[in-house]
Amino acid sequence: MEFHPSQIPIANTFDVKDEKDAEEAAEEMVRIGFANKKTGFKVLMPKDSKIAKRIGLIVTTSVNYGLKKTKQEGDLRYWTYHNDKDHFAIVLISSKVFDELGF
Fold first, then answer.
1. What is the largest CA-CA distance in the chain?
2. Distances in Å between the alpha carbon of 65 and those of 3, 13, 50, 91?
3. What is the distance between the alpha carbons of residues 10 and 37, in angstroms, rounded to a whole number?
4. Backbone angles phi, psi at 34, to 5 degrees
5. To pair with 99 at 20 to 30 A between CA atoms, which of 8, 27, 34, 77?
6. Given this model, what pLDDT does residue 87 score?
7. 35: domain range?
């Protein structure tokens, strides 16, 4: 069976509607951390591609910056995909955890 990001076990799902929500979700992911977890995080975004692109950029850059700032491991993998008729989704997970899960 071929891999799809929806198969990754998810610790938290963030329903993000705008840029402010994206910043808050990224801060929460950094606070929780990616290390020593066997799960990832999912961010749901509106299907409006202009808003989704901005949210995706904010989430990915803010998470990477926050991890570096707090001296946490920043080796992440992420995928963006169509989650359902109303949402795009980003799934973020530590690269080490992804490899340990055997995908």
1. 38
2. 28, 20, 23, 17
3. 10
4. -110, -20
5. 27
6. 95
7. 10-100
In a domain, 52, yes or no: yes
Cα–Cα nearest to 26, from 38, 14, 37: 14
Provide Rg for the chain, Cα atoms.
Answer: 13
The mean pLDDT values, 10 residues at a time, for the chain of 103 residues are 86 95 96 90 93 95 96 92 94 92 82
Is residue 1 one of the residues assigned to a domain? no
Alpha carbons 7 and 2: distance in angstroms, whole number: 10
How far is CA 74 from each of CA 60, 69, 95, rounded to the nearest angstrom? Answer: 11, 10, 9
Q: Residue 14: its pLDDT value, please?
A: 97
Whichever domain contains 17, its CATH number is 3.30.110
